[in-house]
Here is the input.
Amino acid sequence: MSSSDLRHTALDALHRSLGATMTDFAGWDMPLRYGSERDEHNAVRTSAGLFDLSHMGEITVTGPQAADLLNFALVGDIASVGAGRARYTMICREDGGILDDLIVYRLADGEAGRRTYMVVANASNAQVVLDALTERAAGFDAEVRDDRDAYALIAVQGPASPGILASLTDADLDGLKYYAGLPGTVAGVPALIARTGYTGEDGFELFTAPEHAEELWRALTVAGEAEGLIPCGLSCRDTLRLEAGMPLYGHELSTSLTPFDAGLGRVVKFAKEGDFVGRAALAEAAARAEENPPRKLVGLVAEGRRVPRAGYPVVANGEVIGEVTSGAPSPTLGKPIAMAYVDAAYAGPGTAGVGVDIRGTHEPYEVVALPFYRRQK
Here is the structure.
């Protein structure tokens, strides 16, 4: 796909003026890096980084039965989410396969019991999620609306992000809990301020109208300059989430896996009222995972310098026991790391004799519990 065929965010011209290296990501022309990937990664870990995430897919679900629809369509208990809070969940097929992992925000309630939710899907799956929600809405008094063009999404992530944002807003950031959001203004720009992120650090995601995106980005840049805030691309976002043990759709998650296969069975809420898509298949998957666990998702830390990549075989005693799903050099650990699904017998931290087949050579790796990195709170 040529650059002219790709979708562009409202910040496209600004990225180019900053010298960003652009890349095709899920049909969007997105900044991969602005300079050094390592510098961008370390800025988020030690101060703050600024990300354009406007490629994410926002879908609004509203109406008297919006909660009922989402409880039926998704595996989580969305009806129990309080106003101003958010929940990580998944949408699955009837056979339990994961269509996407999502964050659902419950926005302010309207009149006559009308609830409004914003479902945020991964860019690569936004249309799939929209289509599934639209199909599953049949029979519910609720509207599913494609709002992908209604929002730009800017994230400020890192330990300095609360102070940077506080200098630009009167919103009560101290009272804003993790996985919560509130409407406010940032640098005079209306925004939904959410305390969420995909880096393993404290931070915020700011949903605003596309016409306000550049003004907001520039204000954050100025406010964060003294703190060391720098613009960050998708490359360091990937190494940050990998260190934090966060799954990426298409790598750790797919339609061939259920949430229980991915070690994320906790997001499936069987106790909620009513039926939901995939309930029967997921109940069977839960039983299998408990009685005879399939491969488990683990962390691998290299003893050498060679970097594992997605798809590389994990080996032990001359046999293939699993497969790498994501791998990269870890700037924080100073070593190559990977996530991989391995046979349950080899999933225990410290299991000896495990390696990764890197182009015919079995490189030794240590099995560790995820995440690789956890921020100090």
In short: Residues 279-291 form the longest helix (13 residues). The two ends are 43 Å apart (CA to CA). The mean pLDDT is 96. The CA atoms of residues 7 and 28 lie 5 Å apart.
